Automatic annotation (TrEMBL):
Keywords: DNA-binding, Transcription, Transcription regulation. GO terms for molecular function: DNA-binding transcription factor activity; transcription cis-regulatory region binding. SMART domains: HTH_LACI. It comes from the Bacteria. PANTHER family: LACI-RELATED TRANSCRIPTIONAL REPRESSOR, XYLOSE OPERON REGULATORY PROTEIN. InterPro entries: HTH_LacI, LacI/GalR-like_sensor, Lambda_DNA-bd_dom_sf, Peripla_BP_I. Residues 1-55 form the HTH lacI-type domain. It holds the Pfam family Peripla_BP_3. This is LacI family transcriptional regulator.
Length: 329
């Protein structure tokens, strides 16, 4: 059963059936009921592609993220899906890992599906899609990067002020009387590098020497946090406060610091970043930076929605963070 069969059985035109399918008002009520009865009789479901050709929109958005299991990314995805579902859009979520090949694969798939827009979550995409091959594939599709930036007329950005976030965290600890701070970096993205620069800036403003030696490198996650704690303790360096670029790594470090006899915050103050749910269930509860992922996702959705409605959105928006003080400081 197709639109031609429906028109024939309803004894009307194809264009009239199309108007009924698209909920247009300029249809004779009697004919409309006749068409609707036939649609119900055959349980007819119109092709999304055919409907898209008529309405000039596929009502579909693609969201690419490195790993949707990461709670920070998941919260952004949820906010985007929630915003678009209110407007009847379908949201396709794609996990790319840190692989350029996977990124290219999903970009091509969604370009072929003629999605109405793409959201890229994370500064990792600054590098993953920054090639002529990828950019040319999506040059007719609006793209919003959550906390990233790529030059291009069809690219838009919603940025978190990561530099100011970490600088403020260090300033906060100094203002509370802590003097010997370290920073733990567990990623190699543009955002992670910006966070490191924020920490360095806070120290340099206080004329603290040897800033580079106060940066500890590890891997992301609980085990990376444990490893960082061991590195710090075994190095013999003087410290009374540690700022982390990610909550989950900070929680792993707290676990290891406590295992090795340190009290938090009596011996060490610890701050994480992302304000994930895990910060409330660890012991002590973790002071963290709220980088507002729900707001980030909502703003990304608003930019794309404005474009689909023919409006001209801002090319770049900045979000300011907030320190959430808990028991670890």
């Amino acid at each position: 059963m197709n639109i031609y069969d429906i028109a024939a059985e309803a004894k009307t035109s194809i264009s009239t059936v199309s108007r009924v399918l698209n909920n247009k008002t300029n249809v004779n009520p009697e004919i409309k009921k006749r068409v609707e009865d036939i649609l119900k009789k055959y349980d007819y479901k119109p092709s999304a592609i055919a409907r898209g050709m008529v309405s000039k929109t596929m009502k579909s958005i693609a969201v690419l993220t490195a790993d949707v299991r990461v709670s920070h990314y998941a919260r952004i995805v949820h906010a985007i899906e929630h915003e678009f579902s209110k407007s009847g859009y379908n949201v396709n979520v794609c996990n790319t890992g840190n692989s350029r090949d996977e990124c290219i694969k999903y970009i091509n798939i969604n370009a072929e599906k003629q999605v109405d827009g793409i959201v890229l979550i994370g500064s990792i995409f600054n590098e993953l899609i920054n090639s002529e091959e990828i950019i040319s594939t999506i040059n007719n599709i609006p793209v919003v990067i959550a906390n990233g930036h790529v030059d291009g007329s069809n690219f838009y950005s919603v940025m978190v002020d990561d530099k100011n976030a970490i600088r403020s965290a260090a300033d906060y600890l100094y203002d509370k009387g802590y003097k010997d701070l370290l920073y733990v970096c567990d990623m190699d993205t543009a955002s992670a590098k910006t966070k490191v620069n924020g920490f360095k800036e806070s120290l340099k403003l206080r004329d603290i020497l040897g800033v580079d030696q106060k940066i500890i490198k590890t891997i992301y996650g609980i085990e990376g946090g444990k490893e960082a704690a061991d590195i710090i303790i075994d190095s013999g360096v003087k410290f009374d406060g540690v700022v982390f670029g990610e909550d989950i790594t900070a929680i792993g470090a707290m676990k290891q610091f406590k295992k090795r006899g340190y009290k938090i915050p009596e011996d060490i103050a610890i701050i994480g970043c992302n304000n994930c749910q895990e910060t409330l269930i660890c012991e002590p509860e973790l002071t963290t930076i709220d980088n507002k992922p729900e707001l980030l996702g909502k703003l990304c959705a608003e930019i794309l929605r404005n474009i689909t409605e023919g409006k001209t959105p801002e090319k770049g928006i900045s979000i300011q963070t907030e320190i959430i003080e808990r028991e670890s400081t």
